[in-house]
Write a structure and sequence with these properties.
It is built from three helices and five strands, in the order αβββααββ. With 121 residues, it is an alpha+beta fold. It has a single domain, classed as Trna Endonuclease, Chain: A, domain 1 (3-Layer(aba) Sandwich). A five-stranded mixed β-sheet has the order 1-2-3-4-5. It is globular.
Length: 121
């Protein structure tokens, strides 16, 4: 039972990421990496829009508000630390233009992107 729930959650997460990726690609962004894992944590999507890198945390829930509530300050800090690891691993300077977005997917599959969502953390 437990592995079936894990598989369902993994597939649901992948579908949410696919929907978010389509949204960003529609805005002209290019996928750089997906589910990149560093010591600091995992980054769901890493995209490039012009010179900027966008680190995206994807959350899904029945409503956008419920999805937003799933992003905790400690998680945001881990993602920001992982982003620094990503920059180092790819040879980019820490001064690289970047932002941290939250991509919220509701129960109907609608995507809401919140640019610079981690600025309060």
């Amino acid at each position: 039972m437990r592995s079936a729930r894990g598989t369902t959650a993994n597939l649901s997460g992948a579908m949410a990421e696919d929907a978010v990726l389509r949204e960003y690609r529609g805005q002209g962004a290019e996928l750089m990496d997906r589910r990149w894992r560093g010591r600091g944590g995992e980054i769901d999507l890493i995209l490039r829009a012009g010179p900027a890198l966008i680190f995206v945390e994807v959350k899904s829930a029945p409503t956008h508000d419920a999805a937003a509530e799933r992003i905790r300050p400690a998680q945001a800090r881990r993602i920001m630390a992982a982003a620094e690891e990503y920059l180092a691993a790819t040879g980019r300077p820490l001064a690289t233009e970047m932002r941290f977005d939250a991509a919220l997917v509701d129960g109907t599959g609608r995507v809401r992107i919140v640019p610079d969502a981690f600025s309060g953390f």
